[in-house]
Design goal:
Strand order of the largest sheet of chain B: 3-4-7-6-5-8
Strand content of chain A: under 5%
Order of helices and strands of chain A: HHHHHHHH
Shape of chain A: rod-shaped
Number of strands of chain B: 14
Shape of chain B: elongated
Oligomer: heterodimer
Helix content of chain B: 40-55%
Radius of gyration of chain B: 31 Å
Distance between the termini of chain A: 65 Å
Structural class of chain B: alpha/beta
Strand content of chain B: 15-25%
Number of helices of chain B: 18
Largest sheet of chain B: 6 strands, antiparallel
Number of helices of chain A: 8
Distance between the termini of chain B: 29 Å
Chain lengths: 188, 536
């Protein structure tokens, strides 16, 4: 349990909660409920939360999966710097946004869901997580193969030391040495 | 790659038929319930008060009943393994449908979420209508106590939506891949969900009229004139009973959710209990072998354990985590009841096992299973192509072990085995097995039974399997990625007009390419049937 990244789950929850808030707001406005102004607020709040939460953050370890087309949102969210990087700010922001949704029935579900998401963000913030943008990876140059591999060898292969190479007339048997690499005739 | 109708039907036909049947059942149920509330005499007054919101909420509720009962069935893994293993399901086409059980579960889950949104929205409108159109004529029909009161009797509904919210948000692909525990623990809230669901309808807010023969809806009461209609119209509207014999009487709808849901819920709970009892005794770890590239092999013994090649088990190690269970495919199932397994420790729980294991103080391990998977079908085709990516070779290793024990009695006549790895060292996991099988087949005069192709996808460095005893492998080793189209054409040309089973266990890229090739046009009349094994 120690390595769970709570922020990822909080992000999914906040996105879903934004959609629920938006739907509740639409139903409230279309049904002309009493106090429909709260429903109109919920539509705006839902859209804002969805836009804020759409770009997924980068995982600490492992590959991060982006949402489709999230790059432009990443750039926008990144531009707010520490306001969006810090999860304490997000937790309190979501808690504040969800409160007006609790006043009418149509948006109360969205309010509760966003509240839960804000609590999970608080837990993520306490554990020190941060939002890092997923940026396109610059193609790091692979270890380049040295140019010298394409040239023919400049030096002869290594040979045993000179004492061994010198042929000793008195001991022809011992003077012979075995080639370390077997030598075969070139067929072509 | 041009799509071929024949190939597409062979590969995708069964799945899409089931999808069409399921959509048809949902649509039929929705329309039937909608029309019952729209036109039914017993709901006439309620419909007058609530309007369309009543019909939509009840219709979506009946679809929710159906999907909540169906969603549990694909998760009864032991039952599905039994159906797959014994030839209760004789047709191979039907057994291939069992591979898609998880997809069906997800489809039902998504339907539950969508229709929950519809149901909740319609009920919100109902609450407003109960308040605004408070009926003085029929006071027992009301939920509000006076006109203008917004009374909301649906606390169970809110709880259900919250639990569904938690379950749904934790089951996206990226959460399952990165933090599986969140998914597992929230999904196990299903039991709370079902208990609250059964209790949900007991409130009885919606009522139907019990005596519509004696009091036809719209009839005139004794001291009342109908200001809206003329005499002829009202006579035609309700036939010959336009004067009421008695007052309308209402009764709450009896809850039917428990009828739909209790069967599958009991079946699933029985299955979980059976699995728990079966995995109660810990396994004996006989040996632990370290292989290159951070892979360990566990050899275990368990009483009364019978498995078939291609099946997988679920491991639980309480010293790492009491509640987590992770699936692993078996790599060998031999007749003396030993089975082995290759574990690829991801940088998570399993790497904590290694220090304990190195000190020979083996931790207690519990094994649940075996469960069936698509790789069991390799033996049921005349020609099979098995493509493994990296550690995905494990189900096929079990297949190869089974062939080593005896290959004559299977229907399989030719096996193409393609193994793609990133590093050369990975091939040493099963080098012995591959060479042993190769030698056995050569000795028994069937050299064309096994066609082996090994690929190393990382092209830097000098790569060669230099050991003398692994010579069959080094001569079949190729550097670079395989060219699938050429491979398929070759298999098609040498096995004309046959049905080839394609089994893939590896990264998504490979399985997508193979799936596309199986559905595309082939010139030699060979049909390729795609079967995929997935780890998550």
């Amino acid at each position: 349990m120690g390595k769970i990244e709570w922020a990822m789950w909080a992000n999914e929850q906040a996105l879903a909660a934004g959609l629920i808030l938006l739907t509740g707001g639409i139903v409230g406005v279309a049904g002309q409920f009493r106090d429909w102004e709260f429903a109109a607020y919920a539509i705006a709040a839902g859209v804002f939360v969805c836009l804020l939460e759409y770009p997924r953050g980068k995982r600490n370890k492992g590959t991060s999966v982006e949402r489709t087309g999230q790059y432009c949102f990443t750039v926008c969210v990144k531009s707010f710097g520490p306001l969006t990087r810090n999860y304490y700010v997000r937790a309190f922001l979501h808690a504040a946004i969800c409160v007006p949704g609790g006043f009418i029935l149509a948006t109360v579900l969205g309010c509760v869901c966003l509240g839960i998401a804000s609590l999970i963000y608080l837990a993520a913030a306490i554990r020190g997580e941060q939002w890092e943008p997923i940026l396109p990876r610059k193609e790091s140059a692979r270890k380049p193969v040295g140019e010298s591999i394409k040239l023919p060898p400049q030096n002869p292969p290594p040979r045993p030391p000179a004492e061994m190479r010198r042929k000793r007339a008195e001991d022809l048997e011992a003077a012979a040495y075995v080639n370390p690499i077997t030598v075969t005739a070139n067929d072509d | 790659m041009a799509l071929s109708v024949r190939s597409w039907v062979a590969n995708e036909g069964g799945k899409h038929l089931v999808l069409v049947l399921w959509l048809g059942a949902n649509t039929l149920l929705f329309m039937r319930t909608f029309l019952m509330y729209y036109c039914g005499q017993q709901y006439h007054y309620l419909h007058q008060m609530l309007g369309l919101g009543l019909c939509i909420s009840r219709a979506s509720a009946s679809v929710l009943n159906l999907n909540c009962s169906l969603v549990l069935l694909p998760m009864c893994r032991s039952l599905l393994t039994y159906l797959r293993g014994t030839h209760t399901v004789r047709s191979r086409k039907a057994r291939r449908l069992l591979d898609k059980s998880k997809t069906f579960h997800v489809a039902c889950g998504v339907a539950i979420c969508v229709f929950s949104v519809v149901h909740v929205s319609a009920h919100l409108v109902n609450v407003v209508n109960f308040s605004v159109r408070y009926s003085e004529e029929f006071p027992s029909l009301n939920v509000a106590r006076y006109r203008g009161e917004v009374r909301f009797p649906g606390i169970t509904g809110i709880l259900l939506v919250l639990i569904l919210f938690l379950m749904f948000t934790a089951s996206s692909y990226c959460i399952r891949v990165s933090n599986y525990e969140i998914f597992w623990y929230t999904h196990n809230l299903f039991i709370v969900f079902y208990i609250i669901l059964i209790v949900h309808v007991v409130g009885g807010a919606l009522k139907y009229q019990t005596n519509f023969e004696a009091h036809p809806p719209g009839c005139l009461r004794a001291n009342q004139t109908n200001p809206d209609k003329t005499e002829e119209e009202s006579g035609q509207a309700v036939g010959d009973g336009w004067s009421c014999r008695e007052e309308a009487r209402f009764q709450p709808n009896s809850p039917e959710t428990w009828l739909w849901v209790s069967g599958p819920l009991c079946l699933y709970c029985a299955e979980r209990l059976y699995r728990y009892i079966r995995s109660y005794s810990p396994v004996t770890i006989v040996a632990v072998v370290r292989h290159p590239c951070d892979v360990i092999e566990l050899r275990m013994l368990k009483k009364d354990f019978k498995a078939h090649p291609g099946q997988y088990i679920v491991l639980n190690c309480p010293s790492v985590s009491s509640f987590e269970n992770h699936p692993f495919t078996l790599t060998a199932v031999s007749w003396f009841k030993r089975f082995t397994e290759l574990l690829l420790p991801d940088p998570g729980a399993e790497s904590e096992i290694l220090p304990m294991v190195q000190q020979r103080r083996y931790p207690k391990l519990y094994v649940d299973g075996p469960f069936g998977s698509s790789s069991q079908e390799v033996f049921n085709y005349e020609v099979s192509l098995c493509v493994a990516g990296g550690i995905g070779v494990t189900p096929f290793a079990c297949v190869l072990h089974a062939l080593l024990d005896g290959w004559r009695h299977f229907r399989l006549r030719r096996l193409y085995f393609v193994w793609v790895c990133r590093e050369l060292q990975s091939f040493y996991w099963f080098a012995e097995l591959l060479c042993a099988l190769h030698h056995k087949l050569w000795k028994e005069n069937r050299p064309d039974y096994l066609n082996l192709q090994l690929f190393v996808s990382q092209t830097d460095g000098l790569q060669n399997i230099s050991e003398e005893r692994y010579r069959p492998l080094s001569s079949r080793l190729m550097i670079g990625r395989p060219r699938w189209k050429l491979l398929f054409e070759e298999i098609g040309r040498t096995n004309k007009h046959k049905r080839v089973g394609v089994f893939c266990c590896g990264p998504k890229g490979i399985s997508r390419t193979l799936h596309g090739l199986c559905n595309s046009d082939r010139y030699s009349g060979t049909t390729f049937e795609f079967n995929k094994e997935s780890f998550s």
